[in-house]
Amino acid sequence: MSSSSPANQVRASHILIKHQGSRRKASWKDPEGRVISNTTRDAAVSQLKALRDDIASGNAKFGEVASRHSDCSSAKRGGDLGPFGRGQMQKPFEDATYSLEIGEISDIVDTDSGVHIIMRTG
Known about the structure:
Keywords: Isomerase, Rotamase. It holds the Pfam family Rotamase. This is Peptidyl-prolyl cis-trans isomerase. Residues 1-33, 63-90 are annotated as: Disordered. The protein is an alpha+beta fold. It is built from four helices and four strands, in the order βαααβαββ. A four-stranded antiparallel beta sheet has the order 2-1-4-3, sandwiched between helices. A hairpin with a 2-residue loop joins strand 3 (109-111) and strand 4 (114-120).
């Protein structure tokens, strides 16, 4: 079975918060990167933890939070990244996604892009 077969693929949505250490310090919300350049990793993590708590407590839906707060262009799709296989995402992101059950939300995951929470959807 080749690794590109759908059987080995997962599907996930995520919420990305960028910070000073992010590879690209701009996003659809912050095209000039003013906010991102002034956001420490700790501040990004605190923001993400608060969002995660809102989702976990049922006060907010993952997709709605993603569309408002995620620094990824996937925000307009409620954070949905579609299906992907191994080797397509940054390693920490891939490892976290594959370790989740469907419907489960990860803890904070660090990549070169910023900090994420990931919900496995398939």
